[in-house]
Amino acid sequence: MDVSIVIPFLDAAATLPACLAGLQAQDDFDGEVEWIFVDNGSTDDSAKILRAHPRVRLLFESRPGAYAARNTGVAAATGGILAFIDPDCVPGQSWLRSLFEAVRQPGVAVALGVRRPTPDTGLNRMLGDYDTTRDEWALTSEEPTKCYGYTNNMGVTRAAWDRHGPFHDRSRGSDTIFVRRVVDGEGCTALAFVPAMIVSHLEMDGVATYLRKVFTYGRSMQSYRRVIAVRPLTLADRLAVFRKTVHNKCYGFLRASTLAVLLAVGLWAWAIGRLSGYVMRK
């Protein structure tokens, strides 16, 4: 079965070379691959960089928004499996093979992988460890309202896309809305969390960036919860994920305490984001 990798971009010249190098270095597997990049209005050298690469199929989408660009890419794709990644993400060597094998399993419609920060050291690594544990904890649960999606590391069968797509044409949250359509229609077992499906997220370069992101996630959730029913993680949920992270990574007291402080600040940023989303709605 063939795979179509769909990547929207907007002024991504700084990160595209690393993304392309990661795609070029993928392990072989039993299938053909096409790379579809969709320009969403770039004014830098992004398109020039991509035109110079012989494997790239370059498309354009004038409507603003990454989800509109992804829908355009999927409409032109020929693969029976759709792979989504962002231009500021570098896939690990076994990323595509792991994605391919996951969505070929009976009953699996969507595969979601691991996103690591860059650099993956120090405080960044600790936050990445927590996020990975949280993703696995939520995406392997049997509660549909805990499930969410992220198109910077996601695989979808063409059949599932035809049943539940396309993405909502909105600025944020359409990946979660799509995943919830799948789970609500086909059950939680249609969603697979794949630890070997790893990308390095170049944008996640420090604590300040992390806090800005969780603020945005809080505001976004306040918006898309008008479309789907979602249940934010409770404090008990967050504590369970924290304990699992500390246990799995064998953190000592100092590292565990440091992570607890970081997460407390992150929870505050997320709550302020939700409040911002509520005020904007009003």
Outline of the structure:
The protein is α/β, with parallel strands linked by helices and 282 residues long.
Task: Provide structural commentary.
This protein is α/β, with parallel strands linked by helices and 282 residues long. The protein has one domain (3-205): Spore Coat Polysaccharide Biosynthesis Protein SpsA, Chain A. 48% of the residues lie in helices and 18% in strands. The chain has helices at 16-24, 46-51, 66-76, 95-103, 122-139, 158-164, 174-186, 207-224, 235-248, 253-281; strands at residues 3-9, 33-39, 56-60, 81-85, 89-91, 110-117, 153-157, 191-201. The protein has an eight-stranded mixed sheet with strand order 3-2-1-4-7-6-8-5, with helices on both faces. It starts with a strand and ends with a helix. The model has no long low-confidence stretch (mean pLDDT 94).
Straight-line N-to-C gap: 48 Å
CATH class: Alpha Beta
Give the overall form: globular
In total, how many beta strands? 8
Structural class: alpha/beta
Fold-level CATH name:
Spore Coat Polysaccharide Biosynthesis Protein SpsA, Chain A
Total separate domains: 1
Low-confidence stretches: none
* Secondary-structure element pattern, one letter each: EHEHEHEEHEHEHHEHHH
Instruction: Provide the gyration radius in Å.
Output: 18 Å
Spell out the CATH superfamily.
Answer: Spore Coat Polysaccharide Biosynthesis Protein SpsA, Chain A
The profile of the biggest β sheet is:
8 strands, mixed
Looking at the overall shape, the CATH architecture is Alpha-Beta Complex
Q: Please list the strands of the largest sheet in the order they lie side by side.
A: 3-2-1-4-7-6-8-5
Question: Strand-residue fraction?
Answer: 15-25%
Mean pLDDT: 94
- Given the structure, what is the number of helices? 10
Give the helix level as a range of percent. Answer: 40-55%
